[in-house]
Amino acid sequence: MGIFVLGQILTLILLLGIIPLCIGMIPVNLIENRHRSIGVTYIAGFISMLAVFQIITVPIVILAPYGFKIIVPLFSILTVLLGAVGIYMTVRSARKEPFSRECEAFPFSEEKPLWLFVLLLIGFQMFMAFTLTSFDGDDAYYVVHSVLTDETDTLYRIRPYTGLSTGMDLRHSLAVFPIWIAYIARMSGIHATIIAHSVLPLILIPVTYWIYLEIGKKLLKRDIHKLPVFMIFICIMQIFGNVSIYTNATFFLTRTWQGKSMLANVVLPAIFWLILWIFDSENYDKEYRLGLWILLLLTNFVAAMSSTASVFLAAMLIGVTGIVLGIREKNIQIPLRLMICCMPLVLYGVLFLLI
Q1: Do 118 and 235 contact (CB within 8 A), yes or no?
Q2: C-beta separation of 231 from 39 below 8 A
Q3: Structural contact between residues 308 and 172, judged by C-beta atoms closer than 8 angstroms
Q4: Residue among 155, 27, 167, 176 at smallest CA distance from 90
Q5: Measured between alpha carbons, how far is 170 from 172 in angstroms, rounded to an integer?
């Protein structure tokens, strides 16, 4: 029994830790050396991994009612191959260009007590999310979809409320985040409900805060010593943000495993971070921005994976940014490039109308 549990834990570490980190080496190798870090690499890999899942899963959902048994081996093989490519690119890059000693890092020594308080606040949220997991009415729909997919291999073809067969669920069929939860459950041997309620908060909460950390670096680059204060402020806003059942903080800590929470707390902040980075001061070579543009494109695939609402929410955020930056810089290429990054949202929006 103990060996079986250990195997499950090691599988989760592989699926949610090692593989995303290896995949992230691909876009990170297209970013300037001194801007690379383990945190950025993991975020890039996590986004890339989910984007690949969205790309291969949606066609199977539409064409194969019992297609989950196709998704599992196909996605597994692709992630392993992409991870191997990432490792190869990193080794090759290290031979040509040794890692810069100026690699980005946040200050720690002078603000050590503040950073310890930040870690305490984040750890408190993870502990509470794990030990006091909450039930939400939407779980009867989304989590049950994950359970049904894992147990029957069907893709949105069974009504979660009744267990009866039905046609493809048009409203949710393009947002396949519950299917990804079922994949993690199938590969690890852990029940999909446990993956959703207990495992994912331990992953998504740190990922969210690391994205905010990167946002803080861009906003406070001239006052970087204020970064821990910024992070404490974000933590307090999340912990005491349950002023309504509709706030992103409520979703973040009580409905972490739902696609809507993923959109509000991971995807939209990631888009904001990447836009800040792409249009940062011109103190690094422009050729190294290709990895950032690729990440922004992939993030929009993850947006579509999280919720159909992303078709206009994420696109509106990027569109408004493109218009403002295009006018400020007097450069028509900026909105055009951002428009290309929005093509996944346009594609899934059109697909939603057609099927």
Answers
A1: yes
A2: no
A3: yes
A4: 27
A5: 6
Q: Which of 65, 67, 193 is closest to 140 using CA atoms? A: 193
Sign of CA dihedral 217, 219, 225, 226: negative
Q: Please report the beta strands in the chain, taking only residues with DSSP state E, as ranges in sequence order.
A: none
d(CA 251, CA 249): 5
Cα 209 to Cα 253: distance, rounded to the nearest angstrom: 12
- Cα–Cα distance for residue pair 239/120, rounded to 1 Å: 13
- Residues 157/165, Cβ–Cβ less than 8 Å: yes
Query: Can you tell me whether residue 336 is helix, strand or coil?
Result: helix
- Check if the beta carbon of residue 106 is closer than 8 Å to that of residue 224: yes
Residues 261, 208: contact at Cβ < 8 Å?
A: no
- The span from the CA of 218 to the CA of 206, in Å, is 19
pTM: 0.91
Cα dihedral sign, 5-180-131-202: positive
pLDDT digits (tens, 9 = 90+) for 87-129: 998 888 777 665 554 455 555 556 788 999 999 999 999 999 9
What's the residue count for the chain? 355
